[in-house]
Amino acid sequence: MAQLSYREAVAAAMAQEMRKDPNIVFLGEDVAAAGGVFKATVGLLDEFGPTRVRDMPISEQAILGATMGAAMTGLRPIAEIMFSDFLAVCWDLVANEIAKMRYMTNGQVNLPLVIRAGNGGGARFGAQHSQSVENWAMAIPGIKVVAPSNAADVKGLLAASIQDPDPVLFFEQKSMYGLKCDVPEGDYVLPLGQANISREGSDVTIVALAAMVPKALKAAEILQDKHGLSCEVIDLRTLVPLDTKSIIESVTKTGRLVTVEENPRLCGWGAEIASIAAEELFWNLDAPIMRITTPHIPLASVDKLEDLMIPSVDRIVDVVSEMD
Amino acid sequence: MAQLSYREAVAAAMAQEMRKDPNIVFLGEDVAAAGGVFKATVGLLDEFGPTRVRDMPISEQAILGATMGAAMTGLRPIAEIMFSDFLAVCWDLVANEIAKMRYMTNGQVNLPLVIRAGNGGGARFGAQHSQSVENWAMAIPGIKVVAPSNAADVKGLLAASIQDPDPVLFFEQKSMYGLKCDVPEGDYVLPLGQANISREGSDVTIVALAAMVPKALKAAEILQDKHGLSCEVIDLRTLVPLDTKSIIESVTKTGRLVTVEENPRLCGWGAEIASIAAEELFWNLDAPIMRITTPHIPLASVDKLEDLMIPSVDRIVDVVSEMD
Amino acid sequence: MAKSTEKAGSSGKYPLDKSQQLELYRIMAECRALQQRAHDLFMQNLVKGTTHLGLGQEAIASAFGLAMRKDDYTFCTYRGHNHTYVRGITMTSVLGEIMGRDCGLLRGKGGSMHLTSVENGAMGSYAIIGAHMPIAAGAAWSAQYRGTEQAAVCFFGDGTTNIGAFHEAINHAAIWKLPVVYVCENNQYMEYTAIRDVTAVENPAADRASAYGLESILVDGNDAELMYETAMTALDKARSGGGPSLIEASTYRHFGHSRADPGKYRPDEEVAEWIARDPLPAYRSKLLSVGIDESELAAIDANTESMIDQATEEATNSPPPPDEIAFTDVWADGGAAWRN
Amino acid sequence: MAKSTEKAGSSGKYPLDKSQQLELYRIMAECRALQQRAHDLFMQNLVKGTTHLGLGQEAIASAFGLAMRKDDYTFCTYRGHNHTYVRGITMTSVLGEIMGRDCGLLRGKGGSMHLTSVENGAMGSYAIIGAHMPIAAGAAWSAQYRGTEQAAVCFFGDGTTNIGAFHEAINHAAIWKLPVVYVCENNQYMEYTAIRDVTAVENPAADRASAYGLESILVDGNDAELMYETAMTALDKARSGGGPSLIEASTYRHFGHSRADPGKYRPDEEVAEWIARDPLPAYRSKLLSVGIDESELAAIDANTESMIDQATEEATNSPPPPDEIAFTDVWADGGAAWRN
Ligand SMILES: Cc1ncc(C[n+]2csc(CCOP(=O)(O)OP(=O)(O)O)c2C)c(N)n1
Ligand SMILES: Cc1ncc(C[n+]2csc(CCOP(=O)(O)OP(=O)(O)O)c2C)c(N)n1
Ligand SMILES: [Mg+2]
Ligand SMILES: [Mg+2]
């Protein structure tokens, strides 16, 4: 095991896969010579050269269009959209083209591609550079959605996303790029669609994603120590495919469900999971299902206000400890 | 009362408001000379002239950008995005600019604008021209979302949207443009954020929107006749603001909740409402909450397959009649 | 980077021999029959959903069909029957698709606007304006990267030149010198609005070529042999590393924009003038004038007619697709599951 | 529609009198002080979030600041401190915003990238590349419709010329003859990538003007008086119904792209060459050379320094914003409620 940061794990996973398959190519803005504005792709240009690692103009539609066209014709491209907020300028390519092409053509078109994007708040970048838009992606049939919570998962899940035959939107948590953890060396691939039980517990199931996972774990500790509550924390890792099995098993055991999501409140993935539980686990539930989210408001820039908006450890503790 | 079609009600509402306020202007593709590809704006060019009713190039970003810039500086523009699927090519303007500008500027910017778009399936247009994307809009804080189910509501709600000081995304149901009903003559405005109890009942609450409303009503009839079930049908009419009060009152009475939505399954407005009920009405519920949706699949083109995918009267009857 | 508003004449660099001429005529005639039949079937209420016909515009797709290598890629729009047909699919599969039959190219899942035949290099018909332009650049990038000397050809309309994706795609193709040929079929209208009313320059594509460091190419899109020469020139350039081309070919659609549109916004004289320049009879006359025997053309015509009749029968007799396929092929594993 | 790669010289049509010259110098000096102080505060760790400085590019915003009418509209980017400041806001409000204080222009809700002062016609700083270009066209449309002879000015970078919204906005402005002035500040780089590496033409804005039927305008953006003349020409044209202009002004940012960037991708000689062309000392020398007394400039310098010191103190002493405002002003009623 080596200690790698979240950003280093991005480059490690890409390099691992690019070494194996010369058809993997990579493009984006400032990704080659500069190694990415988040420095997550440093070293790839040096190792793989300028025909495989390429800088693009500020043309997100051209980036994703090129990615799609290349994937249709034998390559396995990886694209970087710098901030996930910018998916809005190329959403047509994601939602209308990439996600629908295989289905519309009765299965003729293969799209083995990955779109990486920096996601989420906490960096005080303001409303247009801090959004968590994993729920935008989850709402579109035909695209897989991954959002890892630590460097080890970044390596394993990004490798899996690159190997996957379907289009994957891979959300990297901007606020976590610097965080290190033990990451398996050598070839390391995790399955898509398998949640991680980050902490076992018997009283309440807390479902979280990406930056919300460490907060949920911290809250679970406090809830155990201060309130004697045993929380099971599920790190979803991927939203599509969704590991409903793990959720169902856990809630069947605990009888209580709380979701913690960073996206704004309405129509988030928490609502999807809460609804699944309200249909399929209704008779197992001992208490109302609680969703903890960023309020349905654009994000403020200044630290003090941003911190009020994004779910905090305290809010999780408060909500869980007050559950019936 | 006059009988008007859904499309005639669009033109009627726009004309009603444009007569009162010379700062209301209208732009879109093929909307002026041609009266819109759905013929929903026929007559407006003749009545209000070419400085108020304007044809645009195929430049959706320019259309919504112009709309936003004009709204910021004293006009009250109405934009048409022909098919709601095309919102994907100008989603940045909706999600990142229009929805966030007032908040980011600490309340400085007024955006009294309306974006009208033809929404939904049933016309056999295939996956890129048939989507129901009201859930995309609901997921974005800062934009109001309206989707009427009949011509009378079109008139009242479109008038209200035009008068509203905030940006409104107004979804017109493509498959309903030809449907007529009694529409109040003269000045007619309905409040935004007020659901309509389309049918009263005591056993089950069915929440529906737009084209799903007549289906829910038809299903309610059958459920009464064949199964002796008394269904209350709520036509949401607007998703933001959301009339949770009407939903809560109804479910408190019936103890059962079913949502019927046309958008694909994951993260739809049905999930939002089911989650609200699972949190706030948990102790009032007598049965699992059921969501009826289009499956999480792009839409097929041919009638036979499209009809299998979009919720039908039969599916509503089946689900409701089998509820515990 | 020269700018020209003059239409190009023939360079004589790619003369067609007689067999090629007959082949070009055959392709055009078949496209025409297909479009006419699609229209007739619609009038008989046998077409489901919308259709966008390229009747009147066949010379462009046909010339490219003849000029392209089998392994080249095409990208086209909802008005893509001709462009897809010329790559080698059957008439039955087109008629079946628009009629919603199981024999349809996509078994009814895509519909008229999405004809695609990957095995023939027809990489899709796209219904959101502009989207396929950057996608075509991607296919060209792939060919360049793999070193195959394949080219990608991307057809689009005049109205498409005003959307952002047009700009991004062509700049990208130019800076990476991608082997892609962008072909603007200027049929003078977007849906119901004349292109001149909404465009800052007279020739919506040709007058913008210089913004990407490209040559301005403006041709008569109803002149089949000139289109062939234009296609060959651009394809050769693409294959030899010379980068992209942007071609503007002027033409006209004889019918309205789509099945719903009678096309009444167009002045009668304008329609008449363009119908007089119909590319198919024009090419027929030309072939007669260069000495090709009328019987050879008549044989092609007769064969075309029997093909389209047979296709109509096959499609009409084909059942609708089975229910199950509504729920397949979202993912590479053939399924549609989003959960375990 | 002439195409030019030569930079324009002065026409002498808009000579500045001495008071205007001193005013232009003052505005530039204040912008410079503001940018330098923002940088220093960042180095002291007092800036929250990101900042994008326009240090080195002040001549452009300043000249427009002088040239514009009070009721004109400006639209700018995340690199918008100068453009917003010249419309009449206080230094305190800028420093307060980047430091996250209650005295900030947006009370911390927007941050460095979103400075806006509607009462001064500064209609927003936009952080998604290209978006403000069509929005500026909308403001110009509003002015045209209301018949006010206001103009909208939209500042953007070289990198922005490759995104779709650029294309859509300028075509729209051209066909409607909107009173909008598009100003490309070509500082040679997008974030870390040289613009020449990703653009099909040498001059990313000027070489594309002809694609919209516009004149190609290429100017030295570090020459304050030439910028003033260029601004006046374009504004007069806009007000008199002559339609939009597209100006490319070459310049350079002295620092990196944003606070996180040391700017190491730029060759030392290139940086040195551009610093030698710093617009502020250049204008100072020019004023001295035309006979303005050094004491007059020194008085401006001294006043600027005391202004920026006072603003720093005010901002530093301002508390952070109160919690409540996080939950206000989503809607026109001042609230954030999405349900009843
Ligand atoms: C982004 C987008 N905007 C609008 C439309 C609706 N639409 C379909 S075809 C069309 C006209 C296209 O004109 P042109 O590019 O000239 O092609 P033509 O139909 O003439 O072949 C329009 C506006 C669309 N499909 N996509
Ligand atoms: C749509 C979009 N893509 C990418 C970015 C990230 N980004 C921010 S600034 C910038 C460079 C912009 O370059 P330029 O237009 O030359 O302006 P400058 O920063 O030089 O003033 C980029 C790529 C963005 N904000 N929006
Ligand atoms: Mg056209
Ligand atoms: Mg720049």
Write the layout of secondary structure elements.
The complex is a heterotetramer, with 2 copies of chain A (324 residues) and 2 copies of chain C (340 residues).
Chain A: E1 2-5, H1 6-20, E2 24-28, H2 44-48, E3 53-55, H3 60-72, E4 76-83, H4 91-98, H5 101-104, E5 114-119, H6 134-138, E6 144-146, H7 151-163, E7 168-173, E8 180-183, E9 196-199, E10 204-208, H8 212-227, E11 231-235, E12 238-240, H9 244-254, E13 257-264, H10 269-280, E14 290-294, H11 303-309, H12 313-321
Helix pairs in contact in A: 1-7, 3-4, 8-12
Chain C: H1 18-43, H2 58-67, E1 73-77, H3 81-85, H4 91-99, E2 122-126, H5 132-146, E3 152-157, H6 164-175, E4 180-186, E5 217-220, H7 224-239, E6 245-250, H8 268-275, H9 279-289, H10 294-317
Helix pairs in contact in C: 1-2, 1-4, 1-9, 1-10, 2-7, 4-10, 5-6
Bound molecules: thiamine diphosphate (2 copies) and magnesium ion (2 copies).
Description:
The complex is a heterotetramer, with two copies of chain A (324 residues) and two copies of chain C (340 residues). Chain A is an alpha/beta fold. Chain A has two domains: 2-183, Thiamin diphosphate (ThDP)-binding fold, Pyr/PP domains (Rossmann fold), CATH 3.40.50.970; 196-321, Rossmann fold. Chain A has helices at 6-20, 44-48, 60-72, 91-98, 101-104, 134-138, 151-163, 212-227, 244-254, 269-280, 303-309, 313-321; strands at 2-5, 24-28, 53-55, 76-83, 114-119, 144-146, 168-173, 180-183, 196-199, 204-208, 231-235, 238-240, 257-264, 290-294. In chain A, helix 3 (60-72) runs parallel beside helix 4. The N and C termini of chain A lie far apart (43 Å). Chain C contains ten helices and six strands. In chain C, helix 1 (18-43) crosses helix 2 and helix 1 runs antiparallel to helix 9 (279-289). In chain C, helix 6 (164-175) links the parallel strand 3 and strand 4. The radius of gyration of chain C is 20 Å and the shape is globular. Classes of the chains: A alpha/beta (324), C alpha/beta (340). At the A-B interface, helix 4, helix 6 and helix 10 of A face helix 4, helix 6 and helix 10 of B. One thiamine diphosphate (TPP) sits between chains D (79, 127-129, 156-160, 187, 189-191, 257) and A (29, 58, 60, 82, 86, 89). One magnesium ion is lined by residues 157-159, 187, 189-190 of chain D.
